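pasting for the record
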Amino acid sequence: MGKKMNKAWGLVWGMLLAAGAAAGAHGAANTQQAQVDVNFLAARDAFRAGDAARLDKLAPALAGHPLAPYARYWQLKLRLDEADPDSVRRFLSDHRDSLLADRMRNDWLKALGKKGAWDLFVQESQSVPVDDAEIACYALQQRMVRDRAEALADAKRLWSTGSETPESCEPLFDAMLDKGVLNERDVWSRFTLAAAAGNFSLAQRINGKLPAQHQIAPRDLERANRDPERLLSKNEFKGATVAGRELALYALQRAVARSPRGSLEAVADAWRHARRQLPPGIAHSGNGIIAYAVARRLGPDALAWYREAGSASLSDIQLAWKVRAALRDQAWDDVLGAIAAMTPPQQMDPAWRYWKARALAVRGQGAEARALLEVLARDVSFYGLLAAEESGIVADFQSEPVLPTPSELADLDGLPSVQRMLKFYDLELRPEALREWIWTIRNFDDRQRLIAAQYALSKGLFDRAINTADTTVARHDFALRYMAPYRQTLSEAAQQTGLDEALVFGLVRQESRFRADAVSSAGAVGLMQLMPPTAKWVAKQLGKADYRPSQISDVATNAKFGSYYFKYWLDRFENLPLLAIAGYNAGPGRAQAWRSARQIEGAIYAETIPFNETRDYVKKVLANAVLYARQFGTGGPSLKQRLAFIPPRGGKLDEIAAVGQAETEK
């Protein structure tokens, strides 16, 4: 017995020793890996500081690390101006079909173009698609050497923009002006585009490209920048000249830009005075500028200003806001007219297809309206869902899940880009991780994307899984698109606060994609993106005397606090989810201010929200809620019921909301 016991203890002891040795080896490996990670981060810092010598010392220690190619890339990039072509080609060959190879090729072409090494530029750019404006301009510079006229003619398409263009384009533009490929009308056109985009410094530089006798005097531009209302109201421009007319429009754009939140009355009054000195076409263009600005402020006279714009050529964005102004006024003929004036691609936007159908129905053109709605109802989108409800079509979005094989998942796991993504996540370098993932799936078909989404889900990367599943074109998996992590916790929070479970999930999907560690640039934290002061206020309301700011990212706490805060505003907005959602994103005061002087349907309120982000946000949250209800099999209100009708400004609702805002801001 004793011998058997001793033998047994010997076996156990041997196993313990072996386990200890294995654990020690594992611990040592972890320590070694951690040190390599530290070296990588130090190498990254050295690159950012432009310290090539320190980077060279650190790079050898990264051998075998998943992110070692980044160190080699950084080494080459810091010396790219004098790099040996063979070393660049070797890097491109060693890391072919990778994000870094794509970056290096672009960097290399830019370096070659900058120093005019055209023979090498041609060799390296063959069979490489050019989708970078800087490289495109270098390629045109190279073509100028052998076929100047053709190159300059092709370069003209790069001119017509209100945005800054790369330095590599400037020699082309100068040559185009010199050879008459660009005329004065082209220059004024870009001047106008720059001013309309609020890029006033670019407008001034473009003005400088005109002949001195035809350009706006620099002192006049300075006066327009400093006090545009005075320039307009005092007629401090020469309306009989092209330069004078352009100065007036420039001053108007500048005056509008200077009052982004204030009243436009002073600007409008100044323009009314100035336009009397201008030809009708210029006056109409200025009226269009005022109309767009008034519409974005939800001014009641926006549509009147649009009508005063007459035959002025309006941009797609100006026309979009004409539609919105017409919707708030229920002016359905203006809705149709503005959509018809848009460019064909813009007309295909789901929003404008839906509102065109609605306008046609009002005019008694039911068959045409239904034809539009039936096509739109196939879209899994806010307006697709609305179209289905409007036309009575039962939208049957079919899931076709993919069940990936172990080998398919293993193949994905073995991709170097995926390994780099995972390591970036380990190092909490999320932007870099996202770039590697987006590169990985860029050419995937629907089936491959659904496998990739499953892989991301297996790694706990809920946001990558949802976003990847969201990109399929013909084959969809709605269980992946509308997955429900933390369901028990979120459902309990919804139940405790009396909220619709599907609405809570719709909100979280849009806020954080279920990333418990999400922190926005503004400081909002967790699943429901709570601001720390808001969480502190909720803790006080709930009597949580032991609450600490560090608890805000805890899943259960975040879900409970976020649900409480949303329900607080939902109650004060008389159970109108649309107002509560808009207030959750942009602040309750803004949600109130965006209401009309009369009752409007919720879909019109949503479409006319002035903030692009919030307008997109409320549509997606409400569509999410409808689709989550379908996934959960719980039914619930339709999208139109959730949108409801929004009461006019003033009255009891304003008073209740004002009291609520004062309470939360204490």
